[in-house]
Amino acid sequence: MITDLFINNEFIATANKQRVVNPSTGEVIVSVSLAQQEEVELAIKSARNAFDNGPWNSISYLERKNYLLKISQGILENCAQLADLESSNAGKPIKESSFMDIPSSAATFEYFANNFEKFLEQETIQIQSQIANAQGSLIRQGRGVVVLIVPWNYPLLIASWKMAQALAAGNTVILKPSSLTPLTALELGKIIALAGLPKGVVNIITGSGEAIGELLCSDKRVDMISFTGSNSVGKKILGYTCENVKKTIMELGGKSASIVLADADLELAVNGSLCSIFLNQGQMCTAMSRIFVQDEIYEKFIKDFTSKAKRIKLGQVLDYETQMGPLISAQQREKVIAYVEDAKAQGAKVVCGGVIPDNPALQKGFFFEPTVLTGVLPSMDIFKEEVFGPVACITRFSNADEAIKLANNSDYGLAATLWTKNIAAAQAIAKSINAGTVWINTYGMFFNELPYGGLKQSGFGKELGREGFLEYTCLKNIVSDTTPEGRPLVNYWYGF
């Protein structure tokens, strides 16, 4: 198991360490090295030198592609080990890590390896003007040094999203995983070292945002920040970047809405809604924490949803029968409990869960029962604020216009789902919902081909797809004057 920083193709141990905890058991897994100012400086210098003076910018597209494919293959070859680490460190059920997160991480590197050249194709534009003949060549290149700041809920997958795009575009990177979940990111350093990437192209450093965040984000040698995390931390990062202007991508969470229309396939809507809030213990930016159900099926939906929520199997994350694991930390569980208690005080009704499970086998971990609240009003804090836990708020509505109004009654705009057999109606409703992604009769389907990102307080910029990839590039316009006999627009200066 790798526990050291990865800088300039070397693993570097530091005297300053942090214990990494298994949230299923509360036990320490290992202690990892933490970066301080000296290591941050070394990482920035290494990435800067690799972009400005190293071979990364001059290698062929074929060589770049092969490096990315080697990383993809390395992830697949170490799938079992990475899945065990991800589950033990992040509290994910092993089924999710083994069959979703780790293979999807490899697939992202493979996708951008096979498509970046097409995305970077030069565009030629012939200028139509009465005073000049000119031709513009639009080219896209890497921006330079990109800092990738990754949250604890999908440690390897989101790191892979960002890194695959950044490297494919020709950038050098500094990856900073969450200090709560650094283990798979550090293992990725070993995979990259074995893939043989040039020195300094990838650097991976661990540390708290308070200790090293400002150092990374304010430095003028860094050209871009790609951040996924909380709204409050995102605002801090934007403040840091004001010292030296740079490109930013901000994916800052959400308070997503699920709309269940009366004509929906009820079993599909119930099962999909369960997944949309209880997958990964509700610790998802796209968690459908607000579920709106039409009057005609409201009571039946509540009955079926609650019955199935009560049967969700909590357990140790390495048990393949476990459906829901622990929250990431004791502090996160206390935050979730506080939201539930506050909602109860404001008049919401707990119809399922809302407590720490009494199973003796789970007492050392940070478990919390799947929770269902009814009677939640738009005025309540739990309706407006991101809980980031397994808490579903179910509210009834009478017609589509009311559902749209409820869904849009949020400062966030990341994602939404619609459940209905009327696809034409769903398409119309989707256009009226203020969210960057709207799923119809499904949930959580992320594709490398499609961009992902939010609106309003959920941030700006995209990940994935051609649009997400281009975020990691700079657009350069090269103009050639093609006026016959070499007499361009500036001809009137002749004779001086």
What do you see in this structure?
The protein has 15 helices and 22 strands. By secondary structure, the chain is α/β, with parallel strands linked by helices. The longest helix is centred in the N-terminal third of the chain and has 26 residues, at 94-119. The model has no long low-confidence stretch (mean pLDDT 96).
Helix-strand makeup class: alpha/beta
Bin the strand percentage.
Answer: 15-25%
CATH level-4 homologous superfamily of the largest domain: Aldehyde Dehydrogenase, Chain A, domain 1
The CATH topology label of the largest domain is Aldehyde Dehydrogenase, Chain A, domain 1
Which strand order do you get reading across the main beta sheet? 14-15-16-13-12-18-19
Please report the first level of CATH classification, the CATH class of the largest domain: Alpha Beta
Count up the domains. Answer: 2
State Rg: 25 Å
Q: What summary fits the major beta sheet? A: 7 strands, mixed
Brief characterization of the structure:
It is built from 15 helices and 22 strands. The protein is an alpha/beta fold and 496 residues long.
Chain-wise SSE layout:
Elements: E1 5-7, E2 10-12, E3 17-22, E4 27-33, H1 37-52, H2 61-77, H3 79-90, H4 94-119, E5 123-127, E6 134-142, E7 145-149, H5 155-168, E8 172-176, H6 183-195, E9 202-204, H7 209-218, E10 224-228, H8 231-241, E11 247-251, E12 257-260, H9 266-278, E13 290-294, H10 295-310, H11 330-345, E14 349-352, E15 371-374, H12 381-384, E16 391-397, H13 400-408, E17 412-413, E18 415-419, H14 423-432, E19 437-440, E20 455-456, E21 459-460, H15 465-471, E22 473-481
Parallel strand pairs: 7-8, 7-10, 8-9, 10-11, 12-13, 12-18, 13-16, 15-16, 18-19
Antiparallel strand pairs: 1-2, 3-4, 5-6, 6-22, 11-21, 14-15, 17-20
Helix pairs in contact: 1-7, 2-4, 2-6, 3-4, 4-5, 7-8, 9-10
